[in-house]
Amino acid sequence: MTKKLMSLLTIFALVTAFVSGLNAADVPAKKKKQTPQGLYLTPKEAYDMIKANPAKVLFVDVRTPEELYFVGHAEGIDKNVPLKYVDYNHVNKKGKGFASAKNKKFMEELDAALKAKGLSKEDPVIFICRSGDRSAVAATMAYKNGYKKAYTIVTGTEGDKDKTTGKRTVNGWKNDGLPWNYKFKKDLFQYANPFICK
Questions:
Q1: How many distinct structural domains can be found in the chain?
Q2: In a domain, 13, yes or no
Q3: Over the stretch 95-147, which tens digit does the pLDDT of each residue have?
Q4: Looking at the domain assignment, is residue 105 inside a domain?
Q5: What is the CATH number of the domain that holds 49?
């Protein structure tokens, strides 16, 4: 190869690396937002990935059904597979609200959502929650159960808290101005909350 061609290839590689990294999600500083597979997305990256090939990506919201119902959800999610449910039978440890309980059927429900879309564990699965904590847990669980491309949206739907106001206005799907839906879509919810008052 000539020196000129080598120089051009080097410049091309550097420009490609720079451009591809412009919107890349950094490894989250908070440990609870990190995953062993290290597949992190910004909301914009997730949106672009889904928009580019919606039939080949499973987009899962792992918040409680109540959160989707009252707060809304990212446009384009395929299913709500809650990582936890609100346990209406118990009060939380602080005594300021209801307790939460793990969804013991999480992996079973995720597998069903994947199958319903005609995808395999080789295909990308993107998880979103409110701020990136639960989606990291979900992505880690999926990865440990054979999902090869389990991504987490690091800032979730509402993002991080502003240090001065304490409100979630810094980043996240909604704050980034990405498509949002407040309408109830019953087909997003495939399972009933087992912790409703008895």
A1: 1
A2: no
A3: 888 999 999 999 999 999 999 999 999 999 999 999 999 999 999 999 999 99
A4: yes
A5: 3.40.250.10
Share of the chain above pLDDT 90, in %: 68
Residues of the domain holding 87: 23-186
More confident residue, 193 or 39: 39
Separation between Cα atoms, residue 177 and residue 52, nearest integer Å: 18
